[in-house]
Write a structure and sequence with these properties.
About 25% of the residues lie in helices and about 40% in strands. By secondary structure, it is an alpha+beta fold. The N and C termini lie far apart (about 110 Å).
Length: about 150
């Protein structure tokens, strides 16, 4: 008498797995893959254009160069301002003590630039501002710059 193994199946292994887990998944069609690639390309070009125009249209930018303390009541802040040569900007300059408390503050106006003055067509100018301080300063920075509305 032969005993049959009760775990033996009537179906081949590939059919039993397909019944248990479902059949093989169909891949994306060639047209769907192409549309995904085109969509990703359009989105990336749009993002690159957004980034490029966002930085190009910045009305005014600034860069801290350095500072020095003249004495316990004065500090000098050196910085660069980049803007349209015909625009007028204002910048808020601050001096701080060792606990980052503001000990000096001044808003300065930077008028139109001479386009022949600089290599970049007059967009960037070097500035130095002397601040009166109420106690010794250990740093000086530009807090912010903005374009002044020309239609006063």
């Amino acid at each position: 008498m032969t005993s049959e193994d009760p775990s033996a199946t009537e179906f081949p292994a590939s059919n039993s797995l397909a019944n248990r887990y479902g059949g093989q998944k169909r891949g994306l069609s060639r047209k769907a893959k192409r549309n995904i690639v085109i969509g990703a390309l359009v989105v990336s070009i749009g993002f690159a254009a957004y980034v490029a125009t966002g930085s190009a249209t910045a009305p005014v930018t600034f860069k801290d160069i350095g500072y020095s303390t003249v004495d316990g009541t004065q500090a000098e802040v050196d910085y660069q301002v980049s803007k349209s040569p015909s625009a007028t900007a204002k910048c808020a300059i601050k001096a701080m003590d060792s606990k980052f408390a503001v000990v000096g503050w001044k808003v300065v106006e930077i008028g139109p630039n001479n386009p022949e003055q600089d290599a970049d067509g007059g967009r960037t100018t070097a500035q130095r501002t002397v601040l009166a301080t109420e106690s010794p300063a250990v740093s000086g920075v530009v807090d912010n710059c903005w374009i002044v509305d020309s239609g006063k």
